[in-house]
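pinging the channel bc i need a second pair of eyes. not urgent but kinda urgent?? the chain im working w is below, pasted from the shared doc
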Amino acid sequence: RHNTHAPVTIPQTNKPNTTLYILALLSYTLALLSKEMAITLPLVLMLYDICFSTDKIIKIRNWFFYIPFFLLSLFFFAARTIVLGQVAQTNYLGGTFTSAMYTMTVGIVHYIKLLILPLGLCVDYTGFPVQRNPDLFSILLISAIIFAGLLSYKYFKTVTFAVLFFFITLLPVSNIIPIKISIAERFLYLPSLAFMILLGTVFKILWIKIPFKIKPPSFLYKVFILLIFSLIFIFYYITTIERNRVWETDFTLWKDAAKSCPGERAPTNLGIELFKMGKFDMAFSELKKAANINKSYPIPHAYIGDIYTEKGLLDKAYAEYTTAWKLIKKAEKEGNVEFKISSKFKGYIKNSMGILFMNKGNTVKAIKEFIEATKLDPDNYSAYNNLGLAYMENNQINKAIAAFKNALFVNDRNPEIYLNLGEAYYKKGFIDNAIKAYRKAIEINPNYEDAIRRLKLISINKSTTPPFLP
């Protein structure tokens, strides 16, 4: 009788294919430049060779074939170190190697749980708890999985391959060399392939291997297995669709994250999104929550200041901006890499403080803050625009025109900047330039009423000065 369940073997040859080999090296180089986790792929390929190559000569030969892959890995690692100026991104979690490893054992178990049951997903694990003592359950579970995988080598090599594949591809993000975060779901992109391989192998074992060692499977047995795996497939399908809906907008993402993610970043980002939507009270609540979770975190204070500014509570706003700035300076002085704030955000705070001083009528201080904002973040067109408005208030028209032009250099698709530039030109008496600026604003936004009104005023009487709008 013909055995329909005989294993499929791939013909192997000792003759190397040079073209394919060069393409493999090129692909690996591109993979390294795309994602650092690709540095584990030579180990995965070696593992594949060990598990599935039947010819001992091929196994020995491939050890030599993998040398260029490892040389590329060493070159990449050295280049990365030179460019970044350091090997590690930060200090060890909890300050010591052991606490980092204790934390990662809990983190790896969390990864396993997410692969099996992807519920309570979180976009940001900044507040993932650091373990200062060993978690016995996590250590035993990881040890048991590895032991079971190795034990399966004789009968189920695919199980061994999948288990070791999972742990090998997690090595770069296991904080052996410290990185900025403990765990992240995106780190499961490669390791999740191992889980899919394992799931398929379990199906094959239940469908073919085990039944035929006992007796041919009954129809009901096959229906039962198909039903179980169909339900698993449907479950993963539904959870994937639901997760995609969470990622539809920044607001939906951070609203979900605020429910499931530890730490201060989720409520901070939710607060920012609510602020953008004009829901100031709800934003204030989330930002206050974030500030209370981590009193050293400066970002919530800056946006709380913005809310106070919107409400006209300028003294309270100034206090919040000042708190944010002091926290930034304190973190920099202490060398706290956990709160390394970008120059862009520093520029945002300075721009916000400039707006506050404008609202107070203190254009001198406002100009100083706006200039500082543009130095910290040269791409902050809003700061340049606000600087121009402050110069206009101070009747420094030439400087205002220069500031508006700098704003347009960064963003030439903002009709408000063209409107303000037109105002400056008009005040200077450059009517034709003003008309061009107003028309450009209308070109970008055909329904821009302020620009349309100014053009009409000019067309009625070119000597009529339109009222200045701040």
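so Confidence is low (pLDDT under 50) at residues 1-11, 466-470. and The radius of gyration is 31 Å. — does that match what u expected or am i reading it wrong
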